[in-house]
Amino acid sequence: EPEVTQTPSHQVTQMGQEVILRCVPISNHLYFYWYRQILGQKVEFLVSFYNNEISEKSEIFDDQFSVERPDGSNFTLKIRSTKLEDSAMYFCASSSTQGSNVLTFGAGSRLTVL
Amino acid sequence: AQSVTQLDSQVPVFEEAPVELRCNYSSSVSVYLFWYVQYPNQGLQLLLKYLSGSTLVKGINGFEAEFNKSQTSFHLRKPSVHISDTAEYFCAVSGRAGNMLTFGGGTRLMVKP
Fold first, then answer.
1. Which residues of A touch B (CB under 8 A)?
2. In which domain, by residue range, is B28 found?
3. Domain ranges across chain A
4. A14 φ, ψ (degrees, to nearest 5)
5. The domain made up of A5-113 is a member of CATH 2.40.400.10
6. What is the distance of C-alpha B108 from the center of its chain?
7. Could you report the per-residue pLDDT of A39-54, keeping only the tens digit for each?
């Protein structure tokens, strides 16, 4: 069964450093998403991406965040200058269509900011 | 805007017993409803979804959920649980026009032998 692949599974970084989280969505999917889950809290929507541009973003997705699809397979989330409160599990997801919103999620990348 | 409330953060249950995980939502627009399951060290896996039609929805692993519009609920049920059902379960909603999922806080199902 096709799956969404995320790397790294766990990254530890110092506050102020840049972090790039990588995702390989399912190959024929057109919509891509990032969600995050701070420990003990809800899974929260960050951003959705379609046709090489952001289609929707939440208040969490401020100027320190950016997304990119640098080639035909990868979808990345960059955090420019990490803060302690960025420590969370970050989930990538993809879907083939909009509207019915059946998202396939990756296993997540755990980011720990020290 | 939507919100989702999962009333129980943890549900302990013995193997082969029935279980119900509760989910209530609020929304000013029509929604799609989902249940996802997260096994340890894995991603979120879709259990079932309600898009339209019959309010009783059957999913994988013997789970089912019933959409109740008047009570704005979408409770998840299984008549007989297994040890392997131990996991975190997330209820989620989305508006029909967009693609943003709003999740509940999750319910940890702990199945004991």
1. 4, 6, 31, 33, 35, 41-45, 48, 55-56, 58, 91, 93, 95, 98-108
2. 2-112
3. 5-113
4. -90, 145
5. no
6. 11
7. 888 899 999 999 899 9
